[in-house]
Amino acid sequence: MAGNQREMERRERRAQKDRRHKKIIWILIAVLVLVLIIMKVFEININSVKSFFTAEEGSSSIVQDIAEDNFPYNIASSTGVSILNINNQIGILAPSSFTVLSSKDAEVEYMFEHGYSNPVLESEGIYSLIYDQGAKSFRLDTAGKAVYQEQSANTILCADVSKNGTVAIATTSKDKLCDITVYSKSLEKEMHISTSAGYIVSIAVSENGRSIAAAVVSGENASLKTSVYVYDIRDAKPGREIILPKGNIIDLSYCSGNILVVGDSYAGVIKEAEKYEDIYAKDKISIRCISYTPSGDLILVYNSYNNSTDNVIAYIKKNGKIKNEISISGNIKSVSAGSSLVSVLTNSEIVSFNLSSGEQKGKTEIDDSAKSICTVGSEIFVHRQSLIDRIEAEKK
User: Residue 213: which residues within 8 A CB-CB, separation 6 or more?
Assistant: First the structure.
């Protein structure tokens, strides 16, 4: 009798174990079906899901897959939105707020309401500078906290920030035409100078925070003249004038002691703050959009004339030398570059190329609601409608 009792107990334990196994299997099947439904609804790439199901040691990780599904990320506005790579995070400037989003799982790392009527975002390294163009407010933040908020004495025209947190603000002036004020990251005034040379339309701070370059527009012989003035912050003496080709200036950027200059129909470099040299002569090109690699190399998208759909992606090194040119057709809306890849957004697709070889590495179809892109590593973040979405750059 005792032997039969033990046998019955063993059979009961075995039956309970089998029921538990079957229950676990059905739970896993249900989870898998749910994941497949979510992937279908949100058009999630199976390769990205697979990579998150497997941890670095090769073990299963469903928790990581759940984090992956936080993209696409909803934002409050579909217009007036800028996205930038800020220290390998996604900086999102919206009409009423600024958000720093984790590029890995779309978790909000930092967010605040800025209250500016015309916000403009500049970023370098870990620092982001937001200023209210046409008003007086500006603020400096890192990717995770506020550094300071301040008011300028006069109306802000343009501004820039360096990798060490030095901020240059160009404003209107009570006594002359424009003022330039330079602040350290601790809000100490390092330079203040006024100028009547013209109106400042663009400004750049050197990487080490020691020099300022200001693009100034003035009148000469009944026509407009554009010049760059370079100032040494330490002595605040009147800057050296370098005359640029005529035309609207789009951007100034310091790169290893040189100053890269982009106009609407030309591009060039100012070497050692002394002499301007053409990269593309005036009226030889029509600029569509620009970007920079993480190391500071310039990426230009241009065509030969306005409204042309035959474009060239130019990879320009910090010394002003053209490293590569890549041909692409379409209406180019945005360009963004990583350390080795460059991607462009057209009305119907995102196309990625190897910067050095020009080889196409990926292509993704997208509807015309997409407005801009931002590259972080091997992934591209897309602003479309009221969403920030993510795709793989290297995807055929």
Answer: 203, 204, 206, 228, 229, 230, 231, 252, 254, 259, 270, 273
Q: Which two tokens stand for residue 94?
A: 């919206």
- Reduced to 3 states (helix: H, G, I; strand: E, B; else coil), residue 124 is strand
CB 121 within 8 A of CB 129: yes
SS3 assignment for 196-260: CCCEEEEEEECCCCCEEEEEEEEEECCEEEEEEEEEECCCCCCCEEEECCCCCEEEEEEECCEEE
Are 105 and 91 contacting, i.e. CB atoms less than 8 angstroms apart?
no
Q: Is the peptide bond before 119 cis (omega within 30 degrees of 0)?
A: no
> Using CA atoms, how far apart are residues 238 and 189, in angstroms rounded to an integer?
17
Tell me, rounded to whole angstroms, the distance of Cα 48 from its chain centroid.
22
Residue that has been written with the tokens 């984790």 in this structure: 102
Tell me the C-alpha distance between 238 and 253, whole Å: 20
Residue 37: per-residue pLDDT: 62
pTM: 0.80
Please tell me the distance from the alpha carbon of residue 364 to that of residue 324, in angstroms, as a whole number: 23
Do residues 120 and 114 make contact, with C-beta atoms less than 8 angstroms apart? no
pLDDT along the chain (396 residues), means of 10: 49 57 62 61 46 43 48 92 95 97 94 97 96 98 96 98 97 96 97 94 94 92 89 82 93 93 96 92 95 95 85 96 96 95 96 96 94 94 95 78
Decide: residue 137, CB within 10 A, 0-12 exposed, 13-18 middle, 19+ buried. middle
Please give the structure tokens belonging to residue 222: 């009944």
The Cα 142–Cα 144 span in angstroms is 5
Tokens of 314: 């130019």
Beta-carbon neighbour count of residue 345 at 10 Å? 26
